[in-house]
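Quick note —
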Amino acid sequence: MKLKDMMFMSLFAAIMGVLAIFPPIPVPFIPVPIVAQTLGIMLAGGILGAKRGGLSILLFVFLVAVGAPLLTGGRGGLGVLIGPTGGYILSYPIAAWLIGYLTEKSIRSLTYWKLVLITTLGGVIVINIIGVTYLSILSNLPWGPTAISALVFLPGDLLKALIASAVIIKLNRVYPLIDSKKRNTY
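Predicted structure written out below.
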């Protein structure tokens, strides 16, 4: 792996930590807060691609696991990963990889709305399905009602998908990091 790749992966792991500065918004009926860090996942996958985006967020999750207080509210450690928010956090690298993979595959015909669909699939649907499933198993609650309670995340997550897609499109035009052989003009 090139030094440039490692620097970009470290940068996006750091961006995830910076997004923790925004305070979590607690939700009264679900033990998982609304956070800004899912924006970083969408950006990492869409800008770095599958491999580098997934690895950068995996690095972030590893740092959280060893105790770095990089999650909103200054949380970190293995306890966070086995708690109610664990499924959401553990899904972050998968979501970043999926967003990166789909972005790479459609880089030649990438439009804003196609990218909104990609970031929504990876950064909203995948994260929520894994997070809700984990929370449902951990809490010993039925999946359906747990999923319905997680709908509170949908408006904010869709807004983050719209913002991330605009940033990804602009950055890929001026400083493309995804393989230029796959690239065509927008």
